[in-house]
TrEMBL record:
<keyword id="KW-0808">Transferase</keyword>
<protein>
    <recommendedName>
        <fullName>Sulfotransferase</fullName>
        <ecNumber>2.8.2.-</ecNumber>
    </recommendedName>
</protein>
<comment type="similarity">
    <text>Belongs to the sulfotransferase 1 family.</text>
</comment>
<keyword id="KW-0963">Cytoplasm</keyword>
<dbReference type="InterPro" id="IPR000863">
    <property type="entry name" value="Sulfotransferase_dom"/>
</dbReference>
<dbReference type="GO" id="GO:0005829">
    <property type="term" value="C:cytosol"/>
</dbReference>
<feature type="domain" description="Sulfotransferase">
    <location>
        <begin position="38"/>
        <end position="260"/>
    </location>
</feature>
<dbReference type="GO" id="GO:0008146">
    <property type="term" value="F:sulfotransferase activity"/>
</dbReference>
<dbReference type="Pfam" id="PF00685">
    <property type="entry name" value="Sulfotransfer_1"/>
</dbReference>
<dbReference type="InterPro" id="IPR027417">
    <property type="entry name" value="P-loop_NTPase"/>
</dbReference>
Length: 300
């Protein structure tokens, strides 16, 4: 990666009503010429919802559990980030042009900004949703260390922006809802981060079935171990420590911070009343604590 001029902390730009960091907004024009292939697989999440985790799992599946092949390059090269467009680096589209089929593609784009070709080609999608409390906390710390994003300010002010959809990629609520609705008409495997934490082997088997692949039991066990948070946090091919400090300052907060469930219980206690709306979740992975959930997640 080349060293570049200071590009940090620029304001968000709005595209079709969705806020994005400047460089990703600038990628949307060129993305209109992107051509999906029928055997592509899209990994879609709202940010900080397990994207890197499921990317590592899927790459390991595609490599037949071969650890050496999984360490051939950083995760952002093995699973190109569709809308990535950081100055001085190849864009996501450029990396994808050199990626052999079948390709794994990562994106956080909401449906309004997603290239239509991915839907027209009926590209399979693995979507992961995560408790919004945990997303907000993780996204706050990500903003602190990732310098192409605006300064997050205080936790309380960031939480207000998050709940209003005034952070990059917009509303968590709209994102998880529209992808859920799409799953009724498009090949989408809709996973929950909390289910992956509770029983990763079970969820890996779901992914294997969805992509039409099978692996020996011992290989699946190896995948569970190799894609654990503990292992990925210390793996430079997965933890983003190969990204220059000009973009990500891991001394402020590591890219892979805790990887837990519901750490927001005690975060900002007494000062953040934004989580005070008690909405039951009827057995969903988030039912132990009140959460601000869209109505579709409350339906049985």
């Amino acid at each position: 990666m080349e060293l570049i001029q200071d590009t940090s902390r620029l304001p968000l730009e709005y595209m079709k009503g969705v806020p994005l960091i400047k460089y990703f907004a600038e990628a949307l024009g060129p993305l209109q010429s992107f051509q999906a292939q029928p055997d592509d697989l899209l990994i879609s999440t709202y940010p900080k919802s397990g994207t890197t985790w499921v990317s590592q799992i899927l790459d390991m599946i595609y490599q037949g559990g071969d650890l050496e092949k999984c360490n051939r390059a950083p995760i952002y090269i093995r699973v190109p980030f569709l809308e990535a467009n950081d100055p001085g680096d190849p864009s996501g589209m450029e990396i994808l042009k050199d990626t052999p089929a079948p390709r794994l593609i990562k994106s956080h784009l909401p449906l309004a900004l997603l290239p239509q070709t991915l839907l027209d080609q009926k590209v399979k999608v693995v979507y992961v949703a995560r408790n919004p409390k945990d997303v907000a906390v993780s996204y706050y710390h990500f903003h602190r260390m990732e310098k192409t994003h605006p300064e997050p300010g205080t936790w309380d002010s960031f939480l207000e922006k998050f709940m209003a959809g005034e952070v990059s990629y917009g509303s968590w609520y709209q994102h998880v809802q529209e992808w859920w609705e799409l799953s009724h008409t498009h090949p989408v495997l809709y996973l929950f981060y909390e289910d992956m934490k509770e029983n990763p082997k079970r969820e890996i088997r779901k992914i294997l079935e969805f992509v039409g692949r099978s692996l020996p039991e011992e290989t699946v066990d190896l995948m569970v171990q190799h894609t654990s948070f503990k292992e990925m946090k210390k793996n430079p091919m997965a933890n983003y420590t190969t990204v220059p400090q000009e973009f990500m300052d891991h001394s402020i907060s590591p890219f892979m911070r805790k990887g837990g469930c519901r750490p927001a219980r005690g975060f900002g206690a007494g000062g953040s009343s934004g989580w005070s709306l008690p909405i039951g979740t009827r057995g969903l992975p988030w039912d132990e604590t009140p959460a601000l959930l869209p109505a579709f997640l409350l339906q049985e």
